[in-house]
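Each lists sequence, tokenised fold; shown next:
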Amino acid sequence: MLVLGAGVAGLVAAKELRARGHDVLVLEASQRIGGRIWTHRFEREGRVFHGELGAMRLPVSHRRVFDLIDQVGLTPKLRPFLSVFQGKGGRLDCAGQRFGFGQLPAGLSLPEWPLAQGLDPAARRFLRRLALLVTVMAPREVRDLAFPQMNGDFLAAVQRHLAAAGPEADFAEPGAILAGLEAVRGRINQAFHLFLSDILLKAAEPLFQLAGGADQLPLALAARCGAEIRLGTEVMALELIPGGVMVQVNREGVAETYQAAQVICTIPLPVLRRMPVAGLDAQTRRRLAGMNYAGATKVLLFCAERCWEADGAHGGASFSDRLLRQVYYPHNQDFAGREGVLLASYCIGADAAPIAVLPADERVAAVRREAARLHPALARDGMVLDSISIDWTAHPWTLSACSTDWDPGMQQMVQDAGAGPGEAEEPQAWRCGGLVLAGEHCSRAKAWVEGAIASGQDAAAMVACPEPALTV
């Protein structure tokens, strides 16, 4: 059995196939496994400090990922990941002013929803707090949609549900905003629904991380799945043929051709779309063309001391409406000493473009200047010992950060509510002849490790057993 891609979806599929008795060969274009899980490690005086260039947090409701972590023996490594609403000392940098989450400075310029003028004071204060969170937390695509398209039904529902709070309520705590949103979320449009579900409401549930680095999960999978994994093997073309799939690869400069009755392909769709793929049916071609992807950038600063803690920031995040957008603070008991790794900028979607266009050294310098608005000590000589950044759109084996439910024209967003009671769920993998497409892009949990796991499992379940021999 042939599996293309050694990210989480491919490794999970390989593990499931081996459990069903298949011989499995995994082909990976890069020289590392893990796909968009990528832990970077800085070393100093024999000690190692890590930061995440890719996936970094695991919501407690994602049961597949925790089951898998337990299966590979990593449960003792789980630690809390403090969200923006759970950390201490996070700041907002908005409209030229810097302040805490519980503050709303007078004169702060924020957009307002149409029809909000006629609401009572409590509802208007709630919406003003919500507008602040959308401004600093939502990607540009959602910001552009949320304000002009908010409808009167939502605003009326806000007023009804918040009337009980009384005229003096100011909703200074983010938790109060989340409680109100949970009550009225059924009245919102699809664009805003996705943002609230995956960003705000997810941030309110417990999150976890793997102490020592997220890449321990794919590494443990690779060690335990029992499959052969060939790195440096780039897929160049696919062709569906009678009785199977032909795969042309470049293996460290040497052209090779593989033929298998069934192939599981977890290659990200932006990469797959740029290579020749012959024999696909019309439905699969539409799926490939219609899936939208978002870019993302991250910048890690390895600092001589965790200077942000002197400013009161312990875990969680700060947000900005400027270049860097999101800043995440380490919360990991394994870090000893004064040093620390700051995720000084995390941008997604169109917000990533201004950073992505900068050369790597200018990118880091620009982010450091912006982060020093929140924590001035970052500008001191000798504070930043090392750094690394990534633009996922420019990464040759991904060309993107994750799939999204935004349509290609960015005019609407669609939330997949999943199957209703008693309904059979659609498989989270796509089949076309002997080719099975899998990955987080096929799943209901797009952009999450959970989605990659679910799709890998469903892809393996689609494959018939026994399998004819692979030929090279």
Observations:
- The longest strand covers residues 233-241.
- Residues 67 and 75 are 9 Å apart (CA to CA).
- Residues 408-423 have pLDDT under 50 and may be disordered.
